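Reading a protein record of the kind used here takes only a little practice. Think of the row as the fold of the chain written in a discrete alphabet. With that in mind, consider the following protein and its fold in token form:
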Amino acid sequence: MLQEQYLRRLAIPRQVYIDSNLISDVSKEPAFKGAIDNILQYYHLQETQPEKFTYEENGNSYHISTLAPSTISDLRKKRKSYKAVADLSFGMLGRTPDFMNCALSVMAKNSHVLGNGEFADYSENAVNYYEKCRNNHLFIGHGAINPQIDRGIPLGAQKNNFCGVRVVSYDSQGMIVSGAKMIVTLAPVADELLIFNMPGLVSGDEDFAIAFAVPVTAKGVKLICRKPLQHPDYNLFDHPVSNLFDESDSYMVFENVFIPWNDVFVFRDVEKSNAFYDKTRIRNHNGHQGIVRGLAKAEFLTGVAIEIAEKLGLSGFLNVREQLGEMTSCLELVRGAILLSEEDATHENGLLNPSIHAIQAVRYHFPKWYQRMVNIIQSLAAGSMLAVPHHGDFVNENSSAISESLQTSSLSSVERCFLLNLAWDISGDGFGQRQMVYEKYHAGDPIRIAAMHYAAYPKQDIFRHLNTIKKIYNDSLCEPRLL
């Protein structure tokens, strides 16, 4: 039932451009098929395994990702759901519905941060929007990143009309917005989008200091997709992953889009815009989902690396074992950080927030670990993955030659070539490179993540040993004395 409802919503015309062509019915577009199939599985799990993927409240059943957790048990149940959903795509889809579901739940729980204004009660809007989304099982995407035009100039001082999304006009009915957001991932197949800014706006940016929800089908909303990374002329033997899970990224354009007041959460308020992501604790809960998904992805790459090493006769070499051990130890570090984020979670306003210190630590280090995993796969598969025949060569006049020459003692030629194609897909081809860049930047600039981690980290206990040795020195009557 939920699957059919989602497909009916997808069939509603929207302005989505891919390869410069307008696609009004995205449900029939091959470039989106893999993502749509994955989301259908997400709804299927909810209906077929309610004990794992739902919770009951006020006599109604909701997806567990929409739960505002109040206990560690709640966080653990959400984590298990996140992992199961991530496993559907081997962690390759980063913006599945659960990503924003958890954000909406805490936005509603901490809606007092948003306050009210002349035209609307923004706190009440946040609660109502959350209820609407979870009751109707909507798939919500988001747009938060402004186009990189001139980061050295505040938004309010820029002349470019598409440097962000701004208020053009407003009245008692709502506001009109225009502008753009970039890297709106999986937006073409979402139902609605939550639009907001990351912290960093300054005085003078008031017209951009907004947060609101908008249907993807709204008049004036355009999604211009990047070039697809799938290979429609090849089958799953040639491209085992990219032909399944290309997660489209879009450039989102607003052309005088009307937003009614009941869908507005921040209006021309720099302070509230800057507080939106952090003070509502969206960052904590998005991050919790994100590092769990990262674990699924790292498990996939580690499995591929081990398979290559073992089946190509490399696993007996000590240096290869070290590389594989590097990957398995990374898995445990991510797993440990996930558990730590739950164990060190803090209560606030009836909400249990996963530790942002543990989450941001993973967000800083995981891209480096992921790139290292990619490099290890490349070193193990090496040049072999650059000379794999087309699937058709296994059934034409070349079949006999390649079947004999490309087999090993443990793999048939087909098995060997499939494994090498898989390695190329996730480490060398456009799909694999996009995944690596995504991991590096999807959570923000790594430099800022590390700097913010240092600034916010509780440092009192860090100095305990240093202060102890200082005291021992001073008490020893040594000269010169420490101040």
